[in-house]
Specification:
By secondary structure, the protein is mostly beta strands. It has one helix spanning 2-21; strands at 34-40, 43-50, 55-64, 75-82, 89-93, 95-96, 102-109, 113-122, 128-137.
Length: 139
């Protein structure tokens, strides 16, 4: 009789333990946005990475002139490279949106660490500018 009672108590404890451990959620995907700015001559380029995690991200660029007016230009390309590593570079052509901003989505940030993105932007008149951004990506 004692063995059955010990067995029942053990089963109840196991059920409680599984219930308590199983109550937590696995939703630790808190999103954040990296927001950076780079200035070249009279142009200011704001760069956003969302959710700023390894994997697929959305990249948004807003370029303004010296009068703080949006300058769309005719081409924008981002080049990504991991600093202090020999992984090579990846490139993403951005799409011009109706509001004059540039945007793209893709998996160009492959792992946590120190990253550099270079924006190669061409004005409507054809003059090219390069804006550089350094940032950290964590798990």
């Amino acid at each position: 009789m004692v063995n059955i009672r010990v067995l029942k108590i053990g089963v109840l404890l196991a059920i409680l333990l599984v219930g308590v451990v199983g109550c937590g959620t696995n939703e630790t995907t808190a999103t954040s946005t990296v927001k950076l700015q780079s200035i070249q001559e009279q142009y200011k380029a704001d760069f956003e990475v969302t959710p700023a995690v390894p994997g697929v991200n959305t990249y948004k660029v807003t370029i303004t002139d010296g009068k703080n007016q949006i300058s769309s230009g005719k081409e924008a390309v981002l080049t990504f490279e991991m600093l202090n590593m020999k992984h090579g570079k990846s490139e993403k052509v951005l799409t011009l949106k109706k509001d004059g901003t540039w945007e793209a989505e893709g998996p160009h940030i492959m792992m946590p660490g120190s990253w550099q993105a270079s924006l190669h932007w061409t004005e409507n008149e054809g003059q090219a500018h390069v804006f550089t951004y350094n940032f950290e990506i964590e798990n």
